[in-house]
Amino acid sequence: MKSLNTFEIKRKQTRQIHIGQIPIGGQAPIAVQSMTNTDTRDVSSTLRQIKRLEEAGCDIVRLAIVDSDAAISFREIVSKVGIPLIADIHFDHRLALAAIEGGASGLRINPGNIGSQQAVSKVVAAAAEHNIPIRIGVNAGSLPRKILKRYGSPSPPAMVESALGHIHILENLGFEQIKISLKSSNVLDTIKAYEELSERVDYPLHLGVTEAGTLISGTVKSTLGIGVLLAQGIGDTFRVSLTRDPVDEVKVAYEILRALNLRHRGPEIISCPTCGRCEIDLFGLVEEVERSLEGIKTSPKVAIMGCVVNGPGEAKEADIGIAGGRGQGILFRKGKVIKKICEAELAQALISEVKKMIN
């Protein structure tokens, strides 16, 4: 019998496009994206960062193409990686054409600022010829003046109108391999804008809260904005934007997906916040275990608890775990005690058991 407490997210049916080999929309798994913060013209540094992002589970990586030298470097980078790369272009349609010829799996542009109508037509024709999608990226901080004048502020309706205008430009050119983002640093505005656009189009949506901030503030804002939308079934791919190493963006993204039971990657660590009953170095223990289990792709539930009395019971659904006491701890599986271990050996005992279980 199905549990009455089970909550299943019913995703909105959207059109499906492909970024390289990654399907976006049409009930495909929600794709995790990030963006390099290296200078694209520095090929070796950018390749190293892309490799780290790929190892962390990133599905798609975006690169800024700031000038013709960056476009030349982009071609070389594409030739040396397997992960799909999106070229992020502003203002100069020639850079978009160069990125397409250089092997981009997708473009991120605003048709309204890429150049003249003739320039837009050239970019769209090249994208169609190479069968690559275009993401329309609407940002609350750069809406057209006429729209801002009409609405008085970068409100959700203003963002939606801007997106629809860009969509019409592409549709009038016969191009429909489109995905759309509506990003604001205001979480509630972001949610409202996506909700409104989702009611009006069936193109896949790229979610994000732009300029979200540092690790803590950015994680909170992104989790709320992206999580609320995903819980409603809105969104086909997303990026968590942090003023941080982009690998951390990918880690946070997978935790959002895990919390909503949409995708699982890597161990789920369940640990208590500690209280006056904790008599071991739980913080250090958690950090050591988390660091040692990085790179594992399967998703065992691992509990690290600071209280021998309540630990196993509170983490009874964990696949494997430990609960510490004064100078020692217990190793348990599914809430059942296996053996006692001295504190100094707790971390390695748990790590060993987890690796044994997944191999």
Structure characteristics:
Sulfite Reductase Hemoprotein, domain 1; TIM Barrel; 359 residues; five-stranded mixed beta sheet; 2 domains; alpha/beta; elongated; 12 helices; eight-stranded parallel beta sheet
Report on this structure.
With 359 residues, the chain is an alpha/beta fold. It folds into two domains: 17-259, Dihydropteroate synthase-like (TIM Barrel, Alpha-Beta Barrel); 268-358, Sulfite Reductase Hemoprotein, domain 1, CATH 3.30.413.10. It contains twelve helices and 15 strands. It has helices at residues 43-56, 68-79, 93-101, 117-130, 145-151, 156-172, 187-200, 215-231, 246-259, 282-292, 311-314, 346-358; strands at 17-19, 22-24, 31-35, 60-64, 85-88, 106-109, 134-139, 178-183, 206-207, 237-239, 268-271, 301-305, 320-324, 328-333, 336-342. The protein has an eight-stranded parallel β-sheet with strand order 8-7-6-5-4-3-10-9. It has a five-stranded mixed β-sheet with strand order 11-12-13-14-15, with helices on one face. A two-stranded antiparallel ribbon has the order 1-2. Helix 3 (93-101) packs parallel to helix 4 (117-130), helix 5 runs antiparallel to helix 6 (156-172) and helix 7 runs parallel beside helix 8 (215-231). The longest helix has 17 residues, at 156-172. The protein is elongated. The two termini are 32 Å apart. The model has no long low-confidence stretch (mean pLDDT 89).
